[in-house]
Amino acid sequence: MGPSGAPDRKHQRGWFSLYYDIIPGDQRFLSQLWKEYSKGDSRYVIADNFTVCMETVTAWIWGPFSFWAVYAILSNKPYRFVLQLIISLGQLYGAVLYFYTEHRDRYAHKGTRLSDDSSDTGSNVFSLRVCP
C-alpha cells in the first residue's frame, strides 16, 4: 500500500500480469483502476501481447530487484550501485520499447489527441482533448 492507503503501482502491475484477460469484465477495485488507466492507452484493456509481457517483467523482475536494491542501499552493500544500474537500464529499455512499439503502430492506442480548438477563441490554439 502507498502512503495514502491506495495500492502502490507495483501491486497494480502484478494484478495486471495475472488478470489481464478478465480485467475488462471484472468489477474488483484493481481491475477498475486498470480500466481507468486504459483510457489513456487502450493496449491495457485489449491485453496487447507486448504490454502484458512488459508489465509482467516490470512486476515480477524489476519489483523484487527494487526491494533488493533498497536493502543494499540501506545496508550500504558494495553491490548497490550495480543493482541500481541493472534496474535503471531495464526500466529504460522497457520505456524505449513501450513508446517505440506505439510509434510503430502510429499511435493507434492513445486516449488523447491534439486538436485545433479554435472554435471557442477564434485563435489558432492547440489543446489536449480526450477522445470520445
UniProtKB/TrEMBL annotation:
Presence of the UniProt keyword Transmembrane helix in the record: yes
Keywords: Isomerase, Lipid biosynthesis, Lipid metabolism, Membrane, Steroid biosynthesis, Steroid metabolism, Sterol biosynthesis, Sterol metabolism, Transmembrane, Transmembrane helix
A Pfam family this chain is assigned to: EBP
Localization per Swiss-Prot or TrEMBL: Membrane
EXPERA domain mapped to chain residues: 1-132
Residues passing through the membrane, by range: 57-74, 81-100
Keyword Oxidoreductase: no
Assigned GO CC terms: endoplasmic reticulum; membrane
Annotated membrane topology: Multi-pass membrane protein
One example GO MF annotation: steroid Delta-isomerase activity
InterPro entries linked: EBP, EXPERA
GO biological process: cholesterol biosynthetic process
Signal sequence bounds: none
Family to which this protein belongs: Belongs to the EBP family.
Protein name in the entry: EXPERA domain-containing protein
Lineage: Eukaryota, Metazoa, Chordata, Craniata, Vertebrata
